[in-house]
Structure formats: structure tokens, C-alpha cells
Amino acid sequence: MIRRLVISVVCCFAWSLTSLSLAETTVDGFTEPFRKIDLAPAEPGTIAEVCVKEGDAVVKDQLVASLDTDALSVSLQIAKVNQSAHGRLDAATAERDLRQLRLEKLEDLRRSGNASGEELDRARAELAVSEANVLTAEETQAVNKLEVDKNAALIERRMIRSPIDGLVVTVHRDQKEYVSPNNPIVVTVVQLDPLRATFRVPTAEVSSLHVGQTAPVLLNDGNTRVTGTIDWIAPVTEAESGTVRVNILLDNHNQSLRSGVPCSLSLEGVK
To answer: Do 260 and 31 meet the contact criterion of CB atoms below 8 Å apart?
Structure first.
């Protein structure tokens, strides 16, 4: 009787150790977007247009919303008109050419003794003034071009573009709403391919893991098993839990895997 009791206790203890060992090789975690970005304009203003809705797919640099640009658009048109206006430069150039021709003629007359030195000096001074006028007109043209670039840049600052290929998950503002510096977020986009699975692995188990290894991840439905790649292992152990954060990237090109769901990692299957 006692022998059977001892055998039963030993078996239970062995089973407990086996279960504990198996439990320690599985780590729970969750999936999350590879990138989540809250988009906001570079300055406050009133929203003129929201170009997307929740659930829309967007590509990098796609316009998702814009602020009012009426005043800046007028300034840009004025700057473009000034840039394309060549009247002052053409007049200054024509006057310079005329002064140059007059000076050349006076120099010929001076060599033949039919022009005074004073006339020649005055012609040279007038040519120098006309050349300065041409330079001033050219500098004005350059400034006008910079004004065009400046106004175009100011308008672009009021455009909100997606920095990634992804999905719109939240539209925080609507047309005609004011975007303040205290709450500037207009649209939130996420990148779901690849999907990131985040785990907290005990420090003792981390030494066997390396970036680039493949790892089996089981999603919460118990049937979906995918193979991911270890992307990052935190260099610091969290003192409160004694665990290390490990990120695994999962291929999700067909958007079949959901973000924000529980999952588990089998450490024994990491290769």
C-alpha cells in the first residue's frame, strides 16, 4: 500500500515537472502593427479636405488630408507672376546695350580727337549704372523664384501625406474642423505587412535566441500556426518581470492575420 502511494507521488511529481518544463518552453504574446503612425500637419489650421476614410489602403506619399491654403495659393500666384515678368530686366538690358554702343562710338571719336575726355568718362559712368540696373533686375528675378519656392513649400506643409504603404484605421477630424497644436492628429495609419508579434521571454531562455532565427507562432484560435523571423531582442531585462522583449515578424501580405490578438511562441521550435 505504502509502495503504491510512493509510486503515485513520484509519478505525479514527474508529471508536474514535465508539465512545468513544457509550460516554460511556451511564451504568450500578442500581435501588433509593424508601424502605427499618427499623421498631423506641420502647423495648425482648418481642414479643407479629408481624402480617405477608415479602412482605405494608402500608398507612400499619398495625400490623406489638407488644411486650408486659399491665402497661400494667392501668394503663390502673385509670386509666379512676378517671376515670369521680364519687363524690368529687358528694359535694363536694352539700356545697357545702348550705353555700351555709345561708349564704343565715343572711344572711336576720342581716338580721332573728336570727343572730349569728359564725355568719355560720363559714358563710362552711365554704362556702369546701366550694368548695375541689369544686375538688380536679375537679382529681383532670383528673389521672385525663391518666393515661388517658399509659397509652394508653405502649401506643402499644410498637406498631410502617408509616409508608408498601409491602412487607415482612424480618421480623427472632419472637414472644416480646426486642428490645434494641442491635438493635431488627423489620421492614423498602420502597416500590417509584416505583422509584429511581441513576446516577453524569461532571461534564462533568451541566450539561445538570435536575430534572424525562424520561430513558430501559434495564434489564439489554436489552429493557425505561422513561421516568423526574430527581428529584435531587447538588450535589457525588465526588472519587474525578469523578462526580455522579443519581436518576431510575420508575413502578412494577404492580410489574413489580425493585429492585436493573443499568440504564443514555442521556444523549442526556434531554429
So the answer is: yes
Distance CA 184, CA 121 (A): 66
Helix, strand, coil percentages in the chain from 3-state DSSP, rounded to 5: 40, 30, 30
* Residues 31/261, Cβ–Cβ less than 8 Å: yes
Nearest to 228 by CA among 201, 194, 188: 194
pLDDT in tens, 90-140: 898 999 899 899 888 888 887 887 878 888 888 889 889 999 998 998 898
In whole angstroms, give the CA distance from residue 87 to residue 271: 74
Listed residue (164, 160, 245, 161) closest to 202, CA to CA: 245
Q: Which residue has the cell 490645434?
A: 180
Sign of CA pseudo-dihedral 150, 151, 152, 155: positive
What dihedral angle (degrees, nearest 10) is formed by the CA atoms of 257, 263, 264, 265?
40
C-alpha to C-alpha distance for 41 and 271, rounded to whole angstroms:
44
- DSSP classification of residue 198: E
